[in-house]
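Hey,
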Amino acid sequence: MEARFYLAKNLRNYDRDYERAAQVAEPLVAEYPQNPIFHLLLGDINAKLKRKEKAAAHYGQAAEITLRDPDCQRRIGQLAAAALAALEVHSLASTAPQERCCAAILKGF
């Protein structure tokens, strides 16, 4: 799981091979649908591929996942709302749950 996440992230950040990054990240979201980081990553990859609807869906799903850590929950919500706003999907951004997340998890995201 961890290797797949970093492979997708590196394909996105360094190789700019967004299609391959999406292929690597999609099984992570399928296997771990309650992990908001995977949804944020796949949302970002889809945004880079100009797939706004898919990106918005993953950002929205990330924001809806309930986490035990309230700081983490808040940061995930902030990231999802900012990503949705960047996509100009204002109707989804305004309905995102309270802003949330854990800086340690997303450090370097």
